[in-house]
Specification:
Pfam families: Glyco_hydro_1. One of its GO terms (cellular component) is cytosol. This is Family 1 glycosylhydrolase. This protein is an alpha/beta fold and 400 residues long. The chain has one domain: TIM Barrel (Alpha-Beta Barrel). The chain is built from 14 helices and 15 strands. It has an eight-stranded parallel beta barrel with strand order 2-3-4-5-6-8-11-12, surrounded by eight helices. Strands 7-9-10 form a three-stranded mixed sheet, covered by helices on one side. Strands 1-15 form a two-stranded antiparallel sheet. Strand 9 and strand 10 form a beta hairpin. Helix 9 packs antiparallel against helix 10, helix 12 runs parallel beside helix 13 and helix 13 packs parallel to helix 14.
């Protein structure tokens, strides 16, 4: 970057993200709760109480607001709101409405995600996303969320990382247990069609609640980088795993960009990262520049009319100094994109809390640590550093 410092625009979303199942605890009616207690080797430990954020959400929001963040992305749990098919819980709807009002009262703009990986057990038992009537059932649930999102919620995310939902469905159908050494499994085409249809139906349902709500969804961007001679291979590999979902957002109010690392593609396909690269606790290559590549690729595919919001970006590490370095590098990329004219409207870190990372508590992405016995919250230096930027809107010289 050529400038000594970069000021992020007024109104720029500056926040952190969480997901209900990963922080709430005791989501006993979700498909993931059943999976956690099924004895599968894929789950190292169950979520149980998680961060107990179902009861302590006000503590989480207090900390984020005090640190300087202006936005909080959190999800609401379908399995709580509709624990049995066609039976909606007024108590749970009221609970999530209190969270929205609590965020607003603290000066945090709420971004509400309607679906973040988990579904009710009854929905899974019907056959999930590809079952007859699944799209209509999801739209009905969205309509039932009107008391939660109908007032004071400027941004709604319909479905988090639909490409990963399709990839996981493809993995399940293939009978394979784990992911390949590099890259992602082949997605399931039927699931891809279903979640795209569900997104469009949900967006329509949200607009029926209030046309002013800005609706979008978030894509897991793998930052596929073609080695010389592998451009066509890369494009063919990426399209069903990523680009088709970005293309589906062309009519949306915004699109969420979520990235953590990169994947190099050679003539034969994805290539594992070299053994000597620095790795995070998830064993991903340490690559802060990923978000810049992800933003530029998304902008190229979705077109100029759809604003970009970084809805997840971060690093699983026990070394908080490395986390700060990662964020500094990532934000320099975001700032460079803004300077180059990309319509980037916000940056939300993953994650606000050390939480349940789909099978284990060990990968710590959080800005805030959680005591597993007392649930005491402690802001890490990275939280103070990143939250402070929310007040100044100035990217420090050292990160530029």
């Amino acid at each position: 970057m050529t400038h000594a410092s970069t000021r992020f625009p007024d109104g720029f979303l500056w926040g952190a993200s969480t997901a209900a199942h990963q922080i709430e605890g005791n989501n006993i009616n979700s498909d993931w709760w059943r999976k956690e207690h099924s004895g599968t080797d894929q789950v190292q430990e169950p979520s149980l109480d998680a961060c107990d954020s179902y009861h302590r959400w006000h503590q989480d929001m207090d900390l984020l607001a005090e640190l300087g963040f202006t936005d909080y992305r959190f999800s609401i749990e379908w399995a709580r709101i509709e624990p049995a098919e066609g039976r909606f819980s007024g108590a749970e709807i009221a609970h999530y409405r209190r969270m929205v009002e609590g965020a607003i009262a603290r000066g945090l703009r709420p971004m509400v995600t309607l679906h973040h990986f988990t579904v009710p057990q009854w929905f899974e038992d019907r056959g999930g996303w590809t079952a007859e009537g699944a799209v209509e059932l999801f739209a009905r649930y969205v309509t039932a969320c009107a008391p939660v999102i109908g007032e004071g919620v400027p941004y709604v995310c319909t479905i988090n990382e639909p490409n990963m939902i399709s990839v996981m469905a493809g993995l399940a159908k293939s009978g394979n247990v784990g992911f390949p050494p590099a890259g992602l499994p082949a997605p399931d085409d039927e699931t891809t069609e279903a979640v795209i249809a569900a997104h469009h139906a949900a967006a329509k349902a949200v607009k029926a609640i209030d046309p002013a709500i800005q609706v979008g969804w978030t894509i897991a961007n793998q930052v596929y980088q073609a080695l010389p001679g592998a451009e066509e291979v890369t494009a063919a590999y990426r399209h069903p795993r990523e680009d088709i979902f970005i293309e589906a957002a062309r009519g949306d109010d915004w699109i969420g960009v979520q990235s953590y690392t990169r994947t190099k593609i050679g003539p034969e396909g994805p290539m594992p990262a070299p053994e000597d690269v620095e790795r995070t606790l998830t064993q991903w290559e340490y690559y802060p520049a990923a978000v810049g590549h992800a933003l530029r690729h998304t902008a190229e595919v979705v077109g100029p009319g759809v604003p970009l919001i970084v809805t997840e970006n971060g690093m699983a590490t026990a070394d908080d100094a490395r986390r700060i370095d990662y964020y500094a590098g990532a934000l320099a990329e975001v700032a460079a994109g803004i300077e180059d004219g990309l319509a980037i409207h916000g940056y939300l870190a993953w994650s606000a809390l050390d939480n349940y990372e789909w099978g284990s508590f060990k990968p710590t992405f959080g800005l805030i640590s959680i005591d597993p016995e007392t649930f005491e919250r402690t802001a890490k230096p990275s939280a103070v550093w990143l939250g402070g930027l929310g007040r100044t809107r100035e990217l420090p010289r050292s990160a530029s």
